[in-house]
Write a structure and sequence with these properties.
This protein has helices at residues 2-32, 36-62, 66-109, 132-155, 167-184, 209-240, 245-257, 259-270, 274-299, 306-327, 333-337, 339-354. It is mostly helical. The protein is globular. 45% of the residues are buried.
């Protein structure tokens, strides 16, 4: 019971600290004069992906055995899988609920239509997520991610002498992506949105820079420790539910470690900032595809078993599905929700592999 209580407490702590984090990171983006999308793809993504990267770094550099080091390899593969499926799927589901609620409210307010006469299942036109320009912008991130991820998976199937040195190329790839995002912010449309007051200084129209930085760092520390404690509770609860350690590590732990990104997306969708929510996920995916992978290549054999290869294939399938819908400008909340189905497919395919 203690583990279940701690699990709930950690989830609440992560959500509340993420609310304060997204509030601070928007002000930080304004202070650094970076583009709106870069706030999601770079600043927010870097902050929320930092805990997983630290876990990988500790595992691959201090692990006493090859098995201990491979925990870092599993984290490097599990992170992108959870983001490409569960994180996008949850975002789509929240958007779907939000739009249906807004549509219901509009119908109730128009012409005295009562809620009892509204059928939520009635046919309606589902709008795409943003303009054609927004879709191209989101697709560009996925086109960056996919080839890097394919190379990452391919390297897990081969062995050669200079493979560890290729880890440096993954760091370089992220550096190029980082520079492109920062520079790209200068070409964004000048949509000025009024920021919510900083939580640390709620009465200040323009908070002090030290308060913005302090709130960002404090919330990151809370997110980091709450996430780690959350994962430990899952590791303890898994066997109680009859789940093996490998199933817990491959199925539940990735979702737990990506919980900050999922919470950020929910908060931004609730605030009507869908582009920031999606940018946070795509930016975190780029970090997960490069930084932990580079560390894994440098300090481990980077050799995949069947379960890791399966996770890589499902991740690629999910990204191809998203890319096709984005490029056709047909990405709706319902179609985004379908991404979570790939995680269900992963779980089903994992059963015979683990047997």
């Amino acid at each position: 019971m203690i583990h279940f209580v701690l699990l709930i407490v950690c989830a609440v702590a992560i959500y509340l600290s993420c609310e304060w984090f997204v509030n601070a990171v928007e002000w930080l983006g304004e202070r650094l004069n970076v583009g709106k999308m870069a706030v999601g793809t770079i600043l927010a993504a870097f902050g929320t992906a930092l805990p997983e990267s630290v876990v990988t770094l500790v595992a691959v550099t201090t692990g006493g055995t090859e098995e201990a080091k491979n925990i870092g390899v599993g984290a490097a593969m599990g992170g992108p899988l959870a983001l490409a499926t569960v994180a996008y799927g949850v975002t789509g589901a929240v958007l779907l609920l939000k739009r249906r609620k807004e549509r219901t409210s509009a119908l109730v307010a128009a012409g005295g239509v009562g809620p009892d006469r509204f059928d939520p299942q009635a046919p309606h036109t589902e709008q795409a997520l943003g303009s054609e320009k927004d879709m191209k912008r989101l697709a560009k991130d996925q086109k960056w991610f996919l080839p890097i991820f394919i190379v990452k998976v391919a390297l897990g199937l081969v062995a050669f002498a200079f493979k560890p040195a290729l880890g440096l190329l993954f760091f370089a790839a992220y550096a190029v992506y980082f520079w492109r995002e920062i520079r790209g912010g200068q070409d964004e449309d000048g949509e000025e949105e009024e920021l919510e007051p900083l939580k640390f200084q709620p009465k200040a129209a323009s908070p002090a820079t030290w308060a913005v930085i302090a709130q960002t760092l404090v919330t990151l520390v809370v997110i980091f420790f709450a996430s780690q404690l959350f994962v430990k509770q899952l590791d303890a609860i898994g066997p109680m539910l009859g789940l093996s350690a490998s199933v817990t590590a491959l199925l539940l732990s990735p979702i737990a470690t990506e919980l900050p990104e999922i919470m950020n997306a929910i908060i931004w969708v609730r605030q009507g900032k869908t582009k920031l929510a999606l940018a946070n996920i795509s930016g975190a995916m780029m970090i997960q595809a490069t930084v932990p992978s580079g560390l894994g290549l440098l300090f481990t054999t980077w050799h995949f078993d069947g379960a890791l290869l399966w996770s890589g294939l499902i991740t690629m399938a999910a990204i191809v599905y998203l890319l096709l819908t984005m490029r056709a400008h047909k990405l709706t909340p319902a179609r985004l929700t379908v991404a979570a189905g790939f995680y269900v497919l992963f779980a089903l395919g994992l059963i015979p592999i683990l047997r």
